[in-house]
Design brief:
single chain; 369 residues; mainly beta; Immunoglobulin-like; 5-stranded antiparallel β-sheet; 5-stranded mixed β-sheet; 3 helices; disordered C terminus
Length: 369
């Protein structure tokens, strides 16, 4: 059997919090005595961002030349910690044949950002064990860092969210197509956590002559990447949950209805202590209209945390009923009772011991799409 090295963490989990102790074992098998420099393990945490912008072709008179693509990048190092079990950086020792086991412990710093993997960058934490010799033998494993984001620490998480947008349409010959299309979205509070249900009220007042085909809702994750060159930024968006409501609103009609969206296992909002990647969430509601017209979209900010709240307020329990009973639209534009899409019931809270999502759930997409 050739020389091997492997890393094992204590217990079945590989997810840790900032300030927690990472412990385990490094196991080495040597088929015969070998001269080595060291047996060690190195812990590291860093973040990297990169993307390329195509620059195209520049034409001057009859001549043209391709402009070089511009590459943007950034890097942050959070910590390094190396433990030597045998030898050192400049030593030479003999490692006897057989099996060797070395326990390790590493205290994580308190100010680490959450693990994250994205389209243009990452925040990663790894442990690499090495038998250092003329032909080194290595083993590398990744582990997850997830910090607790307590929603009770953010005032905006308890405040209701209401957004209103409107637009007017123009016909092909330039005449306006009646009045505006107005849509509003109301959410009882601004903060939720994975496993919790977001109830929201949608009101559509279509005073135009253009039909609303349906209404679409989505939980959108927006990532902002920051580069050091020119202080440039890049923003990417991904639909984490996508819902289509069969709720057409014909021209010169109005409708109000409640819907629900369950937050899947996703990382908390923002990447605290990371300066090159930022993470935000929005509840996006889109009124899709007929013809060659742009849709009307609302993006309501949502704060995603990890710590369940102690209890649900009475206002949230009855939010749907209260909202539908309000006469915020003129009486003549209110829909008939049959037009309301009542929610399936009050949003339920998960168990208080709900754990934050694992690295695999958050990064590899093991949630509802």
């Amino acid at each position: 059997m050739p020389t091997t090295i492997e890393i094992s963490f204590d217990g079945p989990r590989t997810t840790y919090s900032p300030g927690e102790m990472v412990s385990g074992w490094v196991r080495v098998h040597v088929d015969k005595p070998k001269r080595i420099r060291a047996v060690s393990i190195k812990f590291s945490g860093d973040a990297s961002v990169w993307w390329t912008e195509k620059r195209g072709t520049c034409r001057t008179g009859e001549n043209s030349h391709r402009v070089k693509d511009r590459i943007y990048s950034a890097y942050e190092k959070y910590f390094r910690h190396t433990l030597y079990f045998v030898g050192g950086e400049a030593s030479t020792v003999t490692l006897d044949a057989g099996d060797h086991t070395y326990p390790f412990q590493c205290l994580l710093p308190q100010t680490l950002p959450n693990s994250f993997e994205g389209r243009h960058g990452y925040v990663r934490y790894t442990a690499k064990a090495t038998i250092s010799r003329w032909r080194s033998v290595e083993a590398r494993v990744a582990f997850t860092v997830n910090s607790v984001v307590d929603l009770s620490m953010f005032p905006q998480a308890k405040e209701p969210v209401e957004c209103v947008q409107s637009k007017e349409f123009t016909l092909l010959w330039g005449e306006p197509s009646g009045g505006p299309l107005t849509m509003s979205v109301r959410i009882p509070k601004g903060g939720y956590f994975p496993g919790q249900t977001i109830p929201f009220l949608i009101k559509v007042d279509n005073a135009s002559s253009i039909d609303v085909v349906n209404v679409r809702g989505a939980l959108i994750q927006v990532v902002t990447w920051h580069a050091t060159r020119d202080n440039n930024t890049l923003e990417t968006a991904e639909r984490v949950v996508d819902l289509v409501f069969d709720s057409p609103v014909p021209a010169n009609h109005s409708k109000a209805f409640c819907q629900e969206l369950t937050v899947p296992p996703v990382l908390p909002s923002h990447l605290d202590n990371c300066n090159i990647i930022d993470l935000e969430y929005f509840l996006a509601v889109t009124a899709r209209v007929s013809g060659a017209h742009f849709n009307l979209e609302i993006k309501a900010p949502i704060l995603i945390g990890t710590a369940p709240e102690a209890e649900k307020s009475l206002e949230e329990k009855t939010f749907a009923e209260k909202s539908l009973s309000e006469k915020s639209l003129p009486e003549k534009s209110l829909p008939w009772p049959g037009d309301f899409a009542h929610p399936r019931g009050p949003p339920s809270l998960p168990s208080p011991d709900l754990l934050p999502p694992s690295y695999e759930e958050s990064v590899l997409g093991q949630h509802q799409r």
